[in-house]
Every structure is written in C-alpha cells, then in structure tokens.
Amino acid sequence: MSPNGLSVELTAPNGTKYTQPTGLFINNEFVKAKTGERITSINPTDESEITSVDAAGAEDVDVAVAAARKAFKTWRDIVPTDRGGMMLKLADLVDSHASTLATIETWDNGKPYTVALTEDVAEVVATLRYYAGYADKLHGQTIDTGPAKFAYTIREPLGVCAQIIPWNYPLAMMAWKIGPALACGNTIVLKAAEQTPLSILYFANLVKEAGFPPGVLNFLNGYGPVAGAALASHTGVDKIAFTGSTATG
Q1: Across residues 149-168, what is the average pLDDT?
Q2: Which residues neighbour 112 within 8 Å (Cβ) at sequence distance 6 or greater?
Q3: How far is residue 125 CA from its own chain's centroid?
Q4: If 0-12 CB within 10 Å is exposed, 13-18 middle and 19+ buried, where does residue 199 land?
Q5: pTM surpassing 0.85?
Q6: 196 φ, ψ to 5°?
Q7: How many alpha carbons fall within 13 Å on the CB side of residue 138?
Q8: Which residues in 192-232 belong to E strands, given as ranges?
Q9: Cα distance between residue 249 and residue 177, in whole Å
Q10: Which percentage of the chain shows pLDDT scores above 70?
C-alpha cells in the first residue's frame, strides 16, 4: 500500500507487475472514501483476495456529481474536434496499456486472458475511436416551413450523466457508455460493479494522461444499495445509463 493509501503494488498470476489504484477517482485525483469503508476484490478462480478499494457513500457521490457539474460548464463548450482528439489519445493509451488492462480484467473478472485482450480491450479502443470521430459531426437541421418562418433544431449535451455498469464486461461496458456521452459534451460519474472495480481504476489514470479536464470523468467504487442508489436518485444528475438485471429495467 502506498503511503497515502490510494494505491498498491500488485503482481498478477501471469507475472505482470503494476500499480493498482484503490481510491475514488474524482476531479482527476484519487481520493479516499469519506466513510472509510472498503470493498474486497476477489479472484473468482480461487476466491482469494486481490486487494481492497474504497467504497463510496452518499457524501462521496455528492462530491463527484458536483465535480462533474462544474466541469460541464466548460466541457460542453470545448471545440468538438478537440474533444474528439482527447478521446483518440485515450484510445491510443488504452491500446498501449492493453496487456496490463487485460491482465487486470482477467484476474478480477475471471474471463480468459485472450478474450480480455483481443475482444474486450480491443472493443474499448474501437469504441473510443468510433465516438471520437462523431464528436465534430453532431448537428441539427434546418426545416423548410415556408418563407415566413426560420425553423431549425440544435443538438445540445444533457449535462451530468450517471452511469452504472455490471461485472461481466467492465471495460467494454464502460466504453459503450462513456463514448457517446463524452462525444456529445456531457460529463460523467460512473460506478463500477462492486465485484470488478480494478480495471476501471487503472483506466482512470489514462484519462488524466490523455488530458481530460478535471471532473469530466469520475469513477466510483461502491455497493449498489449505497453508492448506486445515491447516484441514481441524485437531483444533480441529468441522465442515467444503467445496465443490470431484468429488475433494473
């Protein structure tokens, strides 16, 4: 564990050594949960403990949503081509860290390494590049209603998007949700599944390295009935994207 308690040095079963963040990623920084509570992440192949991460409570959700709201004021007005450029850089960083991300996904999630590498991580890269290309191609319409009127539509970002993802495709589910939201100029608070938080936290480092402004992307670890419920019911959230069971729908 690092001196500040926000990361730990790990060696995966395949021999990969890396620094695993364990805090909540808010405003481009890892911070400890205000409750002091933690979630233990388990290797599903033998049920051994990998490490533990901070577990967000309602107060942490408030801080993350406030950070996203503040960032939205400027992120929405960034030149769309520049937004797309940051997304392309993020995709390149994911590509360069693919083996580590696949290792973490396999260790924490249990899927075969080849699947994590050639399907899941590759999907993240492809999804980010796809939506990066859309960032400067979003437009409204002019509508001919006759010479007496000028009618048009304009597409505008919604604001703060709360996103809750399941355990089975952590990185891919994340990419499918953040890609279109970022391209359209929204900011995000994403809660990873409590069973599989590790790859998302490693990805958070790449977000900062890609040059995204603080508060645009925030990642929380936390239990569904606590952090998930606080996020889904938060009055500062403009849109919810939630993948879950039939009961969720």
Answers
A1: 94
A2: 106
A3: 14
A4: buried
A5: yes
A6: -140, 65
A7: 21
A8: 217-220
A9: 17
A10: 98
